[in-house]
Amino acid sequence: MLNWIWAGFFIVAFVCAGIKSVCFADFLIWNELGKSLFDAAKLGFSISINLTGLLCFWLGILKIAELSGATDGLAKLLRPLFAKIFPDVPQNSPAFGSIIMNMAANMLGLDNAATPMGLKAMEQLQDINPHKDSASSAQIMFIVLNASAVTLIPITILMYRMELGSLNPSAVFVPILIATFASTLVGFLAVAFSQKLNIFNKVVLSYLLIFIGLILALALGFYGLPVDKRLIISSAFSNFVLIAIIVGFIILGLRKKLNVYDTFILGAKEGFSVAVKIIPYLVAMLTAIAVLRASGALDFLILGLEKCFAFVGCDTDFVAALPTALMKPLSGSGARAMMIETMQNFGADSFPAFVSCIVQGSTETTFYVLALYFGAVKISQTGAALPCALLADLAGIIVAIFMAYLFY
User: Fold this and answer.
1) Taking the CB of residue 365, how many other CB atoms lie within 10 A of it?
2) Could you tell me which residues come within 8 angstroms of residue 399 by beta carbon, excluding any fewer than 6 positions away?
3) Cα separations (Å) of 58 from 31, 102, 251, 273?
4) 250: pLDDT strictly greater than 90
5) CA–CA dist 306, 319 (Å, integer)
6) What count of other Cβ atoms lies within 10 Å of the Cβ of residue 256?
7) In angstroms, rounded to a whole number, what is the distance separating the alpha carbons of residues 215 and 81?
8) How far is it, in rounded angstroms, from Cα 242 to Cα 61?
9) Is this structure's pTM higher than 0.85?
10) Is the pLDDT score of 244 beyond 80?
11) What is the pLDDT of residues 79-131, one digit of tens each?
């Protein structure tokens, strides 16, 4: 499917640019497409290079966690659940520890830590994948959960709201929490349905109820804090957990009499090779997204949607936030720019800005994630991963809009 979507992006961009140049005499559009193409190719390479340091550091830390037994201990906590949703993965697989670490980092909004751990998980799942060019059921489940991961503490969004003058930056916290949970739940159910997994059993339902309870507890705890302290405390908490995990792994490694420095270096060496592997995949996807955006195709789509909603009598106040919703699956930086632009144009505490922030926090850069993770293990046949992930994004967007009307 990525094959057709990638080709489709270029074709649609070409057609839209052609319409602009023929019907509106906008001949400069071709210059914009050319510039966006080269800029995106450069960006894809830069992202890969910039990831190298992070990959080296976190794969080094993860190697200490793996050899010290820390990841095995974490995996045991979720082994009953993993046995149900990853039935083809051996219960002693080291991939479970990497998956847990990746999900924990995503939940805390620590993207820099989540990506190396996720790439490691994909490599470990690839080791037991019998068909190396096609995504396994376990890889599809992991990718969709990763692409729709619950964000417990959306630090970046809260900080942008504060910087742009919001009187209550944390007002979007609970709506984001609910919308991102809906996105993850729909993504999980979509994959489970496609793989015919039996999820309506005591084990899965028990973990689901526990997870819902933790989210509610976090939401209540957050709102129990003084308004002027919420952002500071939530940011400090995320980074405290991050540093505590690193130190905890090192201490556990020392207790196991590991040479933690040499172990770190052993894991870090893997970071460079992983960064090099993903360059072609990132360049391919980012260039396609760039020309699609520069062509004005998304602007045409938003205008059409606004007309459709108005025609059926729906309130269209949320339409101003749709650029963020449509851009997020394609580009994280693009969606962030759209969100900031919405806050600048309408005001940080305006309804369109409120919707835009919730959407930004409840959806993921799906195409980037798939290109990055599948590219790292050279998988070309992605199966149900993309449609399930996009369905999760759609659920997140719909619930985000609904939550905005409910909480604003």
Assistant:
1) 24
2) 178, 179, 182, 183, 362
3) 40, 11, 16, 14
4) yes
5) 6
6) 14
7) 18
8) 12
9) no
10) yes
11) 788 888 888 888 888 888 888 878 877 776 656 667 888 888 899 999 999 88
| HEC string for the chain | CHHHHHHHHHHHHHHHHHHHHHHCCCCCHHHHHHHHHHHHHHHHHHHHHHHHHHHHHHHHHHHHHHHHCHHHHHHHHHHHHHHHHCCCCCCCCCHHHHHHHHHHHHHCCCHHHHHHHHHHHHHHHHHCCCCCCECCHHHHHHHHHHHCCCCCCCHHHHHHHHHCCCCCHHHHHHHHHHHHHHHHHHHHHHHHHHCCCCCCCHHHHHHHHHHHHHHHHHHHHHHCCCHHHHHHHHHHHHHHHHHHHHHHHHHHHHHCCCCHHHHHHHHHHHHHHHHHHHHHHHHHHHHHHHHHHHCCHHHHHHHHHHHHHHHCCCCCHHHHHHHHHHHCCCCHHHHHHHHHHHHHHHCCCCHHHHHHHHHHHHCCCHHHHHHHHHHHCCCCECCCHHHHHHHHHHHHHHHHHHHHHHHC
Q: How far apart are the C-alpha atoms of 113 and 104, rounded to whole Å?
A: 9
Number of other residues whose CB lies within 10 A of the CB of residue 344: 12
CB 405 within 8 A of CB 155: no
Tell me which residue of 375, 107, 293 sits closest to 385, measured CA to CA: 375
How many CA within 13 A on the CB side of residue 160? Answer: 23
- Tell me how long the chain is: 408
Tokens of 400: 């985000």
Which residues lie closer than 8 Å to 148 by C-beta, 6 or more apart? 180, 183, 184, 186, 187, 188, 363, 364, 389, 392, 393, 396
For CA atoms 378, 381, 387, 388, give the dihedral sign. Answer: negative
Facing residues of 381 across strands? 134
Widest Cα–Cα separation across the chain: 72
* End-to-end CA separation in angstroms for the chain: 38
Token pair in block for residue 232: 């500071």
Distances (CA, A) of 40 to 6, 282, 329, 366: 14, 9, 16, 17
